Amino acid sequence: MRELDVLGVRVEMPTNNPIVLLRERGGERYLPIWIGAPEATAIAYAQQGVEPPRPLTHDLMKNLLDALGHTLTEVRIVALTDNIYFASLVVDGGLEISARSSDAIALALRTGSPILVEDSLLDEAGVAITPDEDDEVERFREFLDHVTPEDFEKGGEPPP
Fold this sequence. Notes:
Elements: E1 2-12, E2 17-24, E3 29-34, H1 37-48, H2 57-67, E4 72-81, E5 84-91, E6 95-100, H3 101-111, E7 115-117, H4 119-125, E8 127-128, H5 134-146
Parallel strand pairs: 4-7
Antiparallel strand pairs: 1-2, 1-7, 2-3, 3-8, 4-5, 5-6
Helix pairs in contact: 1-3, 2-3
């Protein structure tokens, strides 16, 4: 398994579909995952350290784990079937719970848990960025520096 870092979320044009971009730690491959707007907001909130006045769903999940004395050991992205990613939450080092990849990523960011991907899945769905494409990655990073969670709410427009 390979560890992934979350680069951030953006809105893909012209479809306006949110996407979370993960990068292989110590490697050159990226894993793009299309997600829903609420999950995009949850991921963006976690990355920006935004604490809502009341817990959102992923905050509640973290609070439940903490209150019950359990630890999210890691998140695993384990399969891709019909363009849908499947993930597992590994609790206390052994218990595996099936989850949507977007929810798993949002929870991992809140708990500081590593995000892992099966090697075969990264081989299948990972995208290698060549040096010529570094400009596109840099534009994406610049976008991430200026995007806000509100950009993913219904009707919100992402920054240019």
